[in-house]
Amino acid sequence: MSTEKIFEVASDLQAHQVQVEERIKTVFNRLEAIEKRLDEISSLLTKVAILLITSMGGLIIALILG
Q1: What are the φ/ψ torsions at residue 32 (nearest 5 degrees)?
Q2: What share of the chain is helix, strand, coil (3-state, %, to 5)?
Q3: Which residue from 7, 20, 27, 65 has the least number of CB within 10 angstroms?
């Protein structure tokens, strides 16, 4: 393998590494956004579950007393 070819391969590899680093940054940013959204959804579901349970409890008490 000639020296020129070695430098060409090294240059191509360096360019590829830069592209991969950018892709990794993009993927991690997207994953962080997805994780944040999932946390928001989880919090919302917890609040809805508490609301439903307390509402059913109130309805049961009203039926028993009523």
Answers
A1: -65, -40
A2: 95, 0, 5
A3: 65
